[in-house]
Amino acid sequence: MPNEKQRQYAADLHSMFTALVDEGFTGDQAVALLCRLIEPQPARPSSAERSKQVSALLAAAGQKPPATRSPADDRAADLWNPPAPNPGAPAHD
Length: 93
Description:
Radius of gyration: 26 Å
Number of strands: 0
Strand content: under 5%
Structural class: mainly alpha
Number of helices: 4
Largest sheet: none
């Protein structure tokens, strides 16, 4: 027998289903959207762990691992937008 919390959860899901169908979704689409909302999302590895994985994959492929400097550091060093050769011209010319 469901408890009060479970009954309220079911009522909320039913309300969301009804709202989605009223907005033009089919019943199957509404159920699929609700399932995406309530299913647990897989844990995402930390940024440092992803960087290690990328470096390992590149090393296995025989390529150079990425630089340790971040894109923000590159922008701060003006590597993405070097100064213009003549002062009046846009930097990309």
